[in-house]
Amino acid sequence: MNIQNRKLIKIATAGSVDDGKSTLIGRLLYDTHSLTTDKIEAIERSSRQRGYDYLDFSLATDGLVAEREQGITIDVAHIYFNTDKTNFIVADTPGHVEYTRNMVTGASTSQVAIILIDARKGVIEQTYRHFFIANLLRMSHVVVAINKMDLVNYSEDVFLKIKADFDALVSKSNFSEEQITFIPVSALKGENVTRKSEHMPWYVGNTLLDHLEVLEPEDLQESTAARFPVQLVIRPKTEAYHDFRGFSGKLYGNSLQVGDRVTVLPSGNESTIKSIHFFDQELESAAPGSSIVLTLADEVNCSRGDMIVKSGEVPKSEKLLSATICQVNSKPLQVGQKYTLQHGVNRVLAKVDRIEAKVHTDFSGTEETDQLKLNDIGKVHFKLSKPIHFDSYHQSKSNGAFILIDEGSFDTVSVGFIE
Amino acid sequence: MSNLFIPNPKEAESIHIIREVAAQFERPVLLFSGGKDSITLVRLAQKAFFPAKIPFPLLHVDTGHNFPETIEFRDQLVKELGLELIVRNVQDSIDQGKVREEKGRYASRNSLQTTTLLDAIEEFKFDACIGGARRDEEKARAKERVFSVRDDFGQWDEKNQRPELFDMLNGKIHVGQNVRVFPISNWTELDVWEYIRTENIAIPSIYFAHKREVFFRDGLIWTANEHVYREAHEEVTEKWVRFRTVGDMTCTAAVLSEAVSLDDVVNEIRQSTLSERGARIDDKRSEAAMETRKKVGYF
């Protein structure tokens, strides 16, 4: 089997300190034979040195020296494993209050969220925050892994109590019940991770790995209107391709095919797709996610940052924007501040016009504020120097999100989800 | 719909990243080692810009201790694709007194490459260096960004990295800063090999099993030749081996193998239980070896 045929499932994990998240990932890696002999040996050695009588799988993922010293995970780490049918990418994000930005970052590139709950502690404030972010980012699916079941005698009552508490949260979110799955596990002992637990006969669902494998990328991909943001104009200026003028980019939302009537934004000029190229192949049509080159039948003005869409499916083009912002930098966002707003590959200047409210990430409502600090989430109104061509984040993840870049440091300071 | 093209998601992501480099930077360069990862990058770059040529040069930092097969392969590839190749030599950095050759049992020029690389970046004013590092290689790499901003000294500050949201890449930098770009961050070793097989990409012969004079030390198989320090009691024998990475001869160990075709190699990798960097002698020095080297500007 080759990579083209294997599904790719991207997962973000979230848990509080000591929920056993690293252990769970380490267990998944170990049980799918994704840990190599030298890594297992290193884990055995470290576990022995620390005097543990079990294998400390958390050592499989806790990378940096600073983390090993503090025994915590401090940034998003990417972990890879595969089964015969599926490639998995796990964005392992830390669970501290102050690291909301890391979960938002990890979740932005993932389709599935695994939220860990310590069976002894149940639903805590951190759980609210993790679920809030999964909801804000519109994850396709949430797996609630209730861990450390071995420490509560594999009790169904404990499981049901936590599930009921969590269901109360689900009712406050945009998720439907089918998008949420509860699995009782013991990462340390390997119960219900990849092997069905004999200690929990009352649980009839899939193991965690089986559940992740059942998810279909088709379910996970949104199908909306085709959006083709132009990255670069390709002009070979060679003899064979003397007059070639192609537009390269990555296609989102839906497929495009030769002959489609299209509109180029911002000019509004219309043309027809003359050809679609992928390296030396000419394609009839391309599915969303393709990095391709298009040529158009007419000589129209089109350059980097422009967007090619199907005529009749034109997105909004506006200079005023309302968005939910998550602040991912220690420099606060304030009214009157100017930023470079990057929407896909397009950049414009943006000014903070008004901060409507700071949103509590525990679903408890909003409060007035004049600034958004690191890890704050809030509703903000912007004025732009030029219109951008957007959909709401609710309609289109790819065309409904943007980042703000600080004009001084050039750091990425905020991520925005357009209303 | 008839003949709908379904992309390989990892390939499409890498092409997107490479195009962003060409669009956001003035002087990008592709760091080319002659290894399978940088060869894969060259193919992805071809795909990103076709039918136009790759719009940036390749830079090879040559330790002088490379396998001759790798150098031959490099020159052939550059010629075939009409690419611009820049070579800078660690030997020159040694001759200029900027770095000192290591001595003894584990002497290697691998870590000396950093100085030569940083000098080349300054000489050509490169603002983006594209490299073939992957996050699955080593745990310090697991936290690396796709666009990784380095300061004037080439240093990596893992606590102060820009968050990367969705697939929006922020390549805005100040004068003197540069960005290391890792388009195949999300690929695994098996992904790379399966891609090379699917695409039928040519690779240097040392990746396939061949007979070689080797000796054994610390459970690893070392190449026996004049560049590699060997003690008198370390006996040279001839074995069927191949290499899983092609770094400097002094820091790249061989594995016993009979894989003579790409199919064989892919099967071997799939079944292998020794990780790729397990055969990198430079990482064995200490558990934090890679992280320490990255902080000072190693690739």
Short account of what is shown:
The complex is a heterodimer of chains A (419) and B (299). Helices cover 18% and strands 36% of the residues of chain A.
What features would you describe in this structure?
Chain B: This is Sulfate adenylyltransferase subunit 2. Chain B: Belongs to the PAPS reductase family. CysD subfamily. The complex is a heterodimer of chains A (419) and B (299). By secondary structure, chain A is an alpha+beta fold. Chain A is 18% helix and 36% strand. Chain A is built from eight helices and 24 strands. In chain A, the strands form five sheets. Chain A has a six-stranded mixed β-sheet with strand order 2-3-1-4-5-6, with helices on both faces. A six-stranded antiparallel β-barrel of chain A has the order 7-8-14-11-10-15. In chain A, strand 23 and strand 24 form a beta hairpin. In chain A, helix 4 runs parallel beside helix 5. The longest helix of chain A has 15 residues, at 156-170. Chain B folds into two domains: 9-190 and 288-295, 3-Layer(aba) Sandwich (Rossmann fold), CATH 3.40.50; 204-283, no CATH class. Helix content of chain B is 30%, strand content 16%. Chain B has eight helices and eleven strands. In chain B, helix 1 (9-24) crosses helix 2 and helix 6 (189-199) packs antiparallel against helix 7. Chain B is globular, with a radius of gyration of 19 Å. The mean pLDDT of chain B is 86. The chains are: A alpha+beta (419), B alpha/beta (299). The interface between A and B is large, with 80 and 64 residues. Strand 13 of chain A pairs parallel with strand 1 of chain B, so a sheet runs across the interface.
CATH superfamily of the largest domain in chain A: P-loop containing nucleotide triphosphate hydrolases
Which quaternary structure do these chains form?
A: heterodimer
- Count all strands of chain B and give the number: 11
CATH homologous superfamily (4th level) name of the largest domain in chain B: HUPs
DSSP summary, beta strand count of chain A: 24
